Amino acid sequence: QEMARPLHRGVLGGGRLSGNIQDYLEDTQMKIKTDKQDFDKNSKPSSDPVSLSLRNPFQFLLSDNTPSKQDSVENGFVAPDQYTSSNSRNRHFLTLLILKFSLILIVILGLTVSLLWTISLTTGGSKSPMIRGYRRLQEQLVSDLWDIGELSLGANKVKDSEFCSPEFENFVPCFNTSENHELGLTEGKEFDRRCGPMSKQNCLVLAPPKYKIPHRWPTGRDVIWIDNVKITAQEVLSSGSLTKRMMMLDEDQISFSFASSMVDDNIEDYSHQIAEMIGLRNESYLVQAGVRAVLDIGCGYGSLGAHLFPKQLLTMCIANYESSDSQVQIALERGLPAIVASFASKQLPFPSLSFDMIHSAWDGVQWDKKDGIYLIEVDRVLRPGGYFVWTSPFANIPDSVRDKENLKRWDFVRSIAKDLCWDLLSQQDKTVVWRKPSKKDCYPSRKHGSGPLICKEGHDVESPYYHPLEACIGGTRSRRWIPIEERATWPSRATLSSKELAVHGVLPDDFAEDNINWKSAVRDYWSLLSPLIFSDHPKRPGDEDPIPPYNMVRNVLDMNAHFGGFNSALLDARKSVWVMNVVPTSGVNHLPLILDRGFVGVLHDWCEAFPSYPRTYDMVHADGLLSLETVKQSRCSTLDLFYEIDRLLRPEGWVILRDTTSLIESARAITAGLKWEARVIEIESNNDEKLLVCQKPLIRSQASSL
């Protein structure tokens, strides 16, 4: 494997000793290692190797000589090991004992002096600045002792993870279409997500041999490196479907700047047409009409979302898993929200009433099959008063057409839409726009036996997690049935009213406090990352120094999103990012609240692979996730979780974890085996928690020789 240039480094703590003391410790460590090797040679063959604990920085000083049967690992964390017993008493063993007791004496003296100093400070009047300074020195001492433990462990402290074979470079676990075909699954079920014990990936996914760090936003929206995704030049040039006829190949880059989209005209004309069909002057007025969140089914390569993003519209792309020429992978590479999802047999992983507009163009979905169940699922996730935009070769076919089969399809879709009480707003060329009713009075007024029934209580699941498709109208029982014209427009929507919060069972004071805390946290995060990310960013002539980091982070994954406060704080700080807000299935479900704020997100079980391609996020954030997964006693280890984070994270991307001190210190040990650069950061306002800030290196796979 090829390791890229050295990572950026900054003063983020970590407690490393410096100067002659550090050199002394390293020399001492080398001698201990040599003595240990000699000692092992003279020991009995049955003796176990020496192993020290990462959980407790003082364990290597206080461990006894009882034998350990095996190294233990619980929940992915390295558990304390002990010295093996031996009856041999030679000079090497005495050397180790002398060193051990010398270090014990140093620690005892240091703690004694610290205690006396503390007493003198606390009884000497009000000297809070001195106490804070002393506290920092005391915390530095603990950090230094931790690093002494790491030095004592040497290369054996954590087993290095193995690299995955090249076929995993672009593979998404749980989506194995060839295996599903072998099981006899057809009619779209071969694209279903199926996670089993064999879907776990206990290795590090390497970047392709010619992988390059993506362009910064917004340049990266229009130009991507062809070697960063799995698509060949021939596939670019021969993209036959209208959803993919939008790329220009320029040597080693793909350009979308002059892309055509779902229709023969360009994307600007197409989106302008949609707005006019709704009754608006142009697409810039969609926000005023109550549209914020858009679901794009079979999004091509995300060009509609790329065009709408500057208009304050957030578009989520969904498409089936594709082993090559993937719509989702390329959309994410462009910095656009996307996720692998199929609703051939399961409901989409979104709550009911989640999107203001749903768009479908030349997507290959057989809307006229299975008694219209796919249109019923669209109705479930569409908000009252929301719009369904459909562009298809079967749409708006005149009765005089000779192709009776296509005419039959168009008549069926039109009939189902009527049974769902959708209002047909406009038809132009191959594009049709319907609107979902804002009120529920249409449903009981339908003729008896016409169209799908209203879902019964047990079948109307507000937040399904890969629940089977239901052939009934869902969401009508939800307290979140609020027409889009009655909701606050963006960006006011991000701050929910007390009435809206009451629907979600959240107190206004708790919500306000959460927002304040996250604004402070984001400022702290950026002050930590700025020296690392922004150190080489040049000042533009005539411009003021931009606030660092400048557009170095675009795709953000929040693994435990709570109320979506991290997302909100990033937008308040005017970061050009979008956030995939993930609500773990093991915690409290706040996903409906997050989506009602105008953000995007999904439910997910973190013991399974996330439905996204490798190397798709610039930053992964998790607050309290380790505690949540540990308390729930999940069926997977923390090491499994870190493998998944590594798979999703782009090379030179960042990880920020906030959790209890013990879990953060244990997680820090795991990151060494993942080859991440990691720093533990103290939180001044909280003694019980710490931050773990990590950066993933760029390691490319070797090009295969033909």
Automatic annotation (TrEMBL):
InterPro entries: Put_SAM_MeTrfase, SAM-dependent_MTases_sf
GO annotation, biological process: methylation
Species per Swiss-Prot/TrEMBL record: Ambrosia artemisiifolia (Common ragweed)
Membrane topology of the entry: Single-pass membrane protein; Single-pass type II membrane protein
Molecular function, one GO term: methyltransferase activity
Protein name: Methyltransferase
Keyword field contains Transmembrane: yes
GO cellular component assignments: cytoplasm; endomembrane system; membrane
Entry superkingdom: Eukaryota
Keyword Glycoprotein among record annotations: yes
Keyword field: Glycoprotein, Membrane, Methyltransferase, Signal-anchor, Transferase, Transmembrane, Transmembrane helix
Family named by the database record: Belongs to the methyltransferase superfamily.
EC number per UniProt: 2.1.1.-
Major subcellular site: membrane
CDD domains, alphabetized: AdoMet_MTases
